Automatic annotation (TrEMBL):
Organism: Amycolatopsis thermoflava
PANTHER family tied to this protein: EPOXIDE HYDROLASE
SUPFAM superfamilies tied to this protein: alpha/beta-Hydrolases
GO MF: catalytic activity
Record-linked Gene3D superfamilies: alpha/beta hydrolase (3.40.50.1820)
Protein's name according to its UniProt entry: Pimeloyl-ACP methyl ester carboxylesterase
Top-level taxonomic group: Bacteria
Length: 493
């Protein structure tokens, strides 16, 4: 049953609910040019355990359509979310999962004062904060190494310029051209948006884009944030979505094979990832998937989503493994982390931590509450904590690879029922693992000896990264594999 909630300015918002109202509330916020039905598959999977709420944002579906452009400003959208929360979860913080413009407006809500204390966690899909995006472009354009990511995002965003033109985009939607272009770019997953929703939703772009990108504000998020970044999104690059550790200190990042409308393509994946963060925010232990996603968030923060620094982080780890000794940065990171854990658990402060704190360097500042330096984040991100690595066979190479990944912090097994994140295959069973990884929908990496089989797997499973071991001694090949997997974490699991 659909009911109407009245927002602060009188706009009526259509709201639907499923699941047990006594369970934790998960509110799903859709984007443009969709309505709440984009969440049907995800909501059906979450409703077994949670109180799931979907609603039509203003201008879409069964909700009212403001007549004036200022009615679509982000502040009005945040007021709509507040009205929904007052109705569906008045006495308990709710969890948000949002897509596209739903994510843009949810970032605005979780980084503002209106809903402070009302949000328990936030899962963002294919929609950055406009203020964060403005800062991101400024940072990238200051140095040549950032021009490439900025240019790629600008190319992906050309449609936004088109949407600013008066009347022409409206004509495109009413003539049917808009739907045809959408289908060509995103396939059937884009659905068949209502013309009225597409036309009225244009005001979201016109009311917010220019002001926010040209004059971005610092907007930190206090809540746990999970970013689910589809790797094949034609509108929002993973770099723009995931490089947000500056604004979200409690960050988890997952890069998912799929396109922009991944809530329709893989509702099972979105529901599982969302449920893991909700469970953790509600007090459950951090899942292995979240531990891996937390490490991925540190990689983005540390390397700034540029390949050169990603390679540097992977090389630093491999060099540490080869020497059986840590670099200064890795050693400092481990010392500070151990000291932090001991302090949390009530143990006496370790001598190493006292020594590091006495120096007054970056790690000390992090422990004492200042932001963690990029070098320290890169050092901590170089490890494989939270990763499950399956190594098959008993060859010298298999033993060397297993030892290398174990030293890097991964959980190493010979097999098992769980879907691994990395498979080093010496028995010719890579195809079986590839099918399991693809079914999970969170990517993965395969390492094998046969170049022909590697080529076939790349064609059949484009969402997976396939690495060929190459020639050389087993120990040297294991080091190359570790380096390649560390580097490619950036584009997959």
């Amino acid at each position: 049953m659909v009911r109407r909630v009245v927002s602060r300015d009188g706009t009526r918002i259509a709201v639907a609910e499923a699941g047990d109202p006594a369970a934790p509330t998960v509110v799903c916020v859709h984007g443009y040019p969709d309505d709440r039905s984009v969440w049907d598959g995800v909501a059906a999977r979450l409703a077994d355990r949670f109180h799931v709420v979907t609603y039509d944002v203003r201008g879409a579906g069964e909700s009212d359509r403001p007549a004036r452009r200022e009615g679509y400003a982000l502040d009005r959208l945040a007021e709509d979310l507040a009205a929904v929360l007052d109705e569906v979860s008045p006495n308990r913080p709710a969890h948000l999962v949002a897509h596209d413009w739903g994510s843009i407006q949810s970032w605005h809500a979780v980084t503002g004062d209106l809903l402070r204390g009302r949000i328990a966690s936030f899962t963002s899909i294919s929609g950055p904060s406009l203020d964060h995006a403005g800062h991101w472009f400024r940072t990238r354009l200051r140095r040549p190494s950032g021009w490439g990511p900025a240019l790629r995002q600008l190319v992906h965003s050309t449609y936004i310029v088109f949407f600013q033109i008066p009347l022409v985009p409206e004509l495109g939607w009413r003539s049917g051209l808009g739907r045809r272009v959408l289908r060509r770019l995103s396939g059937s997953a884009a659905g068949s948006p209502a013309v009225a929703d597409a036309v009225h939703g244009l005001e979201l772009y016109r009311a917010n884009i220019g002001a926010r990108l040209s004059r971005p504000r610092p907007r930190p998020a206090e809540v746990p944030v999970q970013v689910l970044a589809p790797l094949d999104d034609p509108y929002v690059t993973p770099a723009l979505q995931t490089d947000v550790a500056r604004w979200a200190p409690r960050l988890w990042v997952r890069r998912l094979p799929g396109g922009h409308w991944i809530p329709r393509e893989r509702p099972d994946v979105i529901a599982r990832c969302t449920a893991e963060l909700v469970d953790f925010a509600e007090g459950a232990p951090e899942s292995r998937g979240l531990r891996r996603a937390r490490a991925a968030g540190m990689v983005d923060s540390a390397v700034g989503t540029t390949g050169r620094r990603a390679r540097a982080a992977g090389t630093e780890l491999v060099d540490s493994v080869e020497r059986a000794s840590e670099s200064v940065a890795l050693r400092q990171a481990r010392t500070v982390e151990a000291g932090r854990v001991g302090a949390v658990e009530g143990a006496p402060e370790r001598r190493g931590r006292r020594r590091v704190r006495a120096v007054g360097a970056g790690p000390v500042d992090s422990v004492e509450g200042a932001p963690e330096s990029r070098g320290l984040r890169r050092a901590r991100a170089a490890r494989f904590d939270g990763y499950l690595v399956v190594v098959t066979g008993e060859s010298r190479f298999a033993r060397a690879a297993a030892a290398a990944f174990a030293r890097a912090g991964a959980e190493v097994r010979g097999d098992g029922p769980d879907v691994p994140d990395v498979v080093v295959d010496s028995r010719g069973t890579a195809r079986e693992f590839a099918a399991r990884m693809a079914d999970r929908g969170e990517g993965g990496q395969l390492v094998l000896h046969d170049p022909a089989e590697a080529a076939r797997l790349r064609r059949e499973y484009p969402g997976l990264n396939v690495i060929v071991t190459g020639d050389g001694s087993p120990e040297r090949a294991a080091r190359r594999v570790l380096r390649a997997v560390a580097r490619n974490r950036h584009a997959g699991v």
